[in-house]
Amino acid sequence: MPDLTSLPYPPTLGLVLAGGLARRMGGGDKALIAIGGVAILDRVLGLLRPACADIVLNANGDPSRFAHFGLPVIADGVPDFAGPLAGILAGLDWAAANQPNLAWVVSVPGDCPFLPNDLITRLHEARQKAGLPLACARSGDRRHPVVGLWPVALREDLRHALVDEGLRRIESWTARHGVAIAHWPAKPVDPFFNVNTPEDAAEAERLAQRS
Question: What tens digit of pLDDT does each residue of 61-87 get?
């Protein structure tokens, strides 16, 4: 990882969420879809590598399919595909066990090919300005709770919500603690456009060629 001492925020772990079932794509790994000749995961890593102290990938199933990316691959610790909160908890647990000096985790989906370069800076700025422990992204009038900043200190609270309460909706949990919002414009290209369907992949390809 590069020297991060000049960055205006605390050392942060990058967490790529690729643990979903991709039902609308007919299965498979959306992160491996090529957009403009480059896998979405490679595009995401291009954003995270210069900005994060370390990076992990949350994915279920055989981790060897991601081996050539050279990342730790961590599965959900909560069974039965409990959704993105389970992947976030896995990232928080990994940070606590392997990088105890990192107090923050930034999560991004593995299916967003156009993430903004200032993502982590602005998420930290938003939570610092608001005096809140959490932050998430918004583009136009749409909030993106999966694109978020999470303190490792809240991992046991999140575990209780997932395991003991059966909570699954991100915004139900973040509302308990307070979440700051960092805003981006949705045009000319929504930076949080995500590839869920073959039609989305075709649109992403068109947007990549245009830009």
Answer: 899 999 999 999 999 988 877 899 999
